[in-house]
Amino acid sequence: METIQNDSPKSHDLGNGKKQILLNAFDMSTVGHLSPGQWKNPVDKSATKRRLDYWIDLAKLLERGGINALFLADSYGGYDTYQGSVDECIRRAAQWPITDPTIPISAMASVTKNLSFAITASTSFEPPYLLAKRFSTLDHFTQGRIGWNIVTSWKKSAFKAIGLENPIEHDERYRQADEYLRVLYKLWESSWSPTALSLNPSLDQYVDPSQIRTINHQGKYFSLNAKHIVDPSPQRTPFLFQAGTSSAGSEFAATHAEAIFVSAHSPSVLRPKIAKIRSLAQAQGRDPRSIKFFATFTPIIAETDERAQGKFIELKKYASTIGGLVLVSGWTGIDLSKIPLDKEISKEDSAEENKVTSLLDNFTTASDEHPRWTPRLVAEHAAIGGLGPVSVGSPATVADELERWVKEADVDGFNIGYVTTPGTFEEVVDLLIPELRRRGIYPESQEEGLTAREKIYGKGQKELREDHVGSRYKYDVYVEDEPYVEPEEKEKAE
Fold first, then answer.
1. Pairwise CA distance, residues 22 & 405, whole Å
2. At what angle do helices 395-409 and 267-283 cross, to 10 degrees?
3. Are the beta carbons of 221 and 211 closer than 8 angstroms?
4. What is the DSSP letter of 35?
5. What is the pLDDT, as a whole number, of residue 377?
6. Torsion of CA 423, 20, 9, 132, to 10 degrees
7. Residue 137 to residues 76, 150, 188, 278, 456: CA-CA distances in angstroms?
8. Contact at 8 Å (CB) between 293 and 274?
9. pTM of the model
């Protein structure tokens, strides 16, 4: 793992020899995201997310601060591990109710020029053709500022909602997702020639049909016979995020992800996982530094450390401890209501097959910061910040912590979680970013008109990098795969 190259590409060197820190705002179209209970706080506007002006105002704020992207989580079912019921999830508004995150994107894009948008969508519930159409449309409407956070779904309640009794087994989900991505590359990269859109009024021709390829995919999980119905968008393939660092998730990420969303309470827990994915990517011929890692991070910022601590004490008054336990129980598959408060949590406590394996690791892996995890300790952490570290202090204190994580965990940036919204994001824009700029690790301004991918890799890199697997599917080099044959049928034929 020590053979990994120095940072490349160079787009994050700000010209002063220092590496740029990338910041995304982390939100969800729900009342209680990672800090359930704050809807009771008079300064919090989480309960207004069903109004379009919440999203428009947030986009303007993030644009003003030069935030890289608004990263939107999503979920397809309630958390029902805690006490074996979804009731507490509903009662505490622990990521319930949830509206569709794609709907407000166009409105936000219309009031911004630089802000990118990363939307979570699952490979488990809809045909690739439908997702390809939706993301091509969004990439057009945002002028190339769209990203996709690829997830595989695991909640039993979500599968029941679409008529399936049980979720797909963990590693099988990633095998299915791998094929899903390859179908999408065929649609986004292979179907339309770069010159297919050929307006010729004299011939009454808008598109040359001879330059649009029909994709014939006959795979293990998906079959498709169609031309992509949307003309190539500015990026063709949206910028690809992925969440999950299990063994299967790491292999998938090393193959497909351009950026990876990671979560841990300690940089020492994250660093080996990040090193593993970079090493896997290098083995596939990819520049390991081209994969950007964003860690969850929740700041509570005020002008001084003392004022920030006072703010933290005030925020705790509104926190829903049960709501936090509902979320962590769902993520880990451990019903924390059944474990004695001071008993150390282990992987053996996870009685459910369906869970987020990487998050189970986070809550059962010891670190210097947390030598042992108990339900009492989880309860203290879960209600504010949920997934990752909470940093309380002045802009200088929080900036120091960000720099520590970059150095010790080898992350490239952060998904900034909020405690109250838009309060936390206002603190980041008005207090933290000026401090980062003073240190020379955050850009003063952004060039307008860049795509989501160009903002990461540099101007001119609108489409997938040449070392990315999706580039093998570009129109000029694409060769259709042979139809999938079941192993036993293949053996008979041989």
1. 13
2. 40
3. no
4. S
5. 79
6. 10
7. 22, 17, 11, 32, 21
8. yes
9. 0.91
Residue type, 91: R
Q: Which of 35, 154, 49, 25 is nearest to 101 (CA)?
A: 49
Distances from the Cα of 439 to the Cα of 14, 180, 395, angstroms = 11, 43, 11
The two structure tokens encoding residue 219: 């795979």
Note the pLDDT of residue 42: 98
- pLDDT the model gives residue 362: 61
pLDDT value, residue 12: 59
pLDDT score of 340: 78
Query: Can you tell me the distance from the alpha carbon of 197 to that of 205, in angstroms, rounded to the nearest whole number?
Result: 9
> Quick one: tokens of 157?
């309640």
The answer to whether the peptide bond before residue 128 is cis (omega within 30 degrees of 0) is no
Question: DSSP letter string over 413-473?
Answer: EEEE--SSTTHHHHHIIIIIHHHHHHTT-S-S---TT--HHHHHH-TT--S--TTSGGGGG
Q: Are 207 and 196 in contact (CB under 8 A)?
A: yes
Length of the chain: 494
Mean pLDDT per 10-residue interval, the chain, length 494 residues: 43 72 98 95 97 98 98 93 94 96 98 98 94 98 98 79 76 94 98 95 95 97 97 98 87 97 91 96 97 97 98 96 90 85 75 54 63 76 84 98 97 97 98 98 90 97 98 96 84 62
